[in-house]
Amino acid sequence: MKELSLLTTFIVLVLFVKSQEIGRFRISSGDIERINAPVCVPLQSINYNNDKGSIVLYEITNNGEKEIPCQLEPGYSATLWFVLDGLLKKSEKREFIIRVEEKERKDPDIILKKDEKDLSLICNGTPILNYRFGMTYPPEGINPLYKRSGFIHPLWSPGGEVLTRIQAPDHYHHYGIWGPWTLTHIGERKVDFWNLAEGQGTVEFENFLSEYEGSVFSGFQAVQKHIDFGAKGEDQIALNELLDVRAWSVNPEEKKWIVDYTTNINSPLPDGIMLDAYRYGGGIGFRATEKWHSDNCTVLTSDGKTRAEADGSFARWCIVEGKSDTEEGRSGILFLSHPSNRMHPEPMRVWPLNQNGKGDMYFEFVPIRHEDWKLEPKTNYTLKYRMIVFDGKMDAETAEKYWAAFASLPVVSFK
Length: 415
What we know:
Blueprint (H helix, E strand, L loop, with lengths): L1 H17 E10 L5 E9 L11 E8 L2 E5 L2 E3 L5 E10 L4 E9 L8 E5 L3 E6 L2 E7 L18 E5 L10 E3 L2 E5 L1 E2 L5 E3 L2 E3 L9 E12 L4 E12 L7 E13 L7 E11 L6 E3 L8 E4 L9 E5 L5 H4 L3 E2 L1 E7 L6 E8 L8 E5 L11 E4 L7 E3 L5 E11 L4 H12 L3 E4 L1
Antiparallel strand pairs: 1-7, 1-31, 2-6, 3-4, 3-7, 5-6, 8-9, 9-10, 10-11, 12-13, 14-22, 15-16, 15-21, 17-18, 18-19, 19-20, 20-30, 21-29, 22-28, 23-25, 24-27, 25-26, 26-30, 27-28
């Protein structure tokens, strides 16, 4: 019996060394229902040391403890991220334990792959998107001013449908998913960073600030420069942009991508820059696949507006979907605008039903649609968007739950 007691004590000591609890917390949904909600847990009140192991998260369930994939995001105030797969109901409360354990790092679901032109995000072998950092030139015989770098294309649906388009003959300056500013003024001088053939300005990739892979999210931060061609002497940078693109790892049975698109802009100019009110500019723009026309593509906004009514209106979210060659026969993107964005609910640009004759599709959140926006020098401005990329159809109730998961995090309380 004495030997058994010593053995039990030894096992407990070994487990304590290899697994040490450092915190417990509860999350509460409040009066909001959320779907596939990323959760951020601040760790400033917890003492931990990465040298002693990895942070591991467990949910306390009726069947015992269940390990939940989590990811540490270091910084001035470190945070722990995880995703609550599926539905988090109103008033639901769930409890978790944080431990430090000796564990080998698992391969991430979403990996980054880079060649000479593209940085790709790939989920378990299936491509999500390409970020084009290499210079892309227009077709032979087309004005070379249309060249461009720093945009997303292709963006694929989970079923493999390409949803974006670049360099359409009707608009060679359209580049998949991107966000240049159109009508701007530097002093009294007009500068257009969108209509490239005007020769007034452009946007180019500068460098990658970071690339990261993890068990909960993977992505990158890219520096993009908005170049003013009309300055005296050499071209000047009118805006520095830090583009953060992050793809979240969710249950593969959901058959959805969740991609965050966050743009941080700052003007180095001594007097800043004026972003004039216009129907295009900034935010996040989407030129849809050439397959989508008015007879097979639909729009639905958070205010219940359709494609015929949406242009110039305001919305928290907008579903853009159309015909595809997937098994479901339809694919789309739910665009979400964060409440912290300027002019939220945010104005939109949605092409009319007769665009280019067949009703080609273009969508954009436009924070300067109705009011000028003066960017002061040496000041950071942020716009946050999320895309839910799917096959099949999406209804308004589901869209609202996804927006709720983006707009506010569940309440976290430590015990």
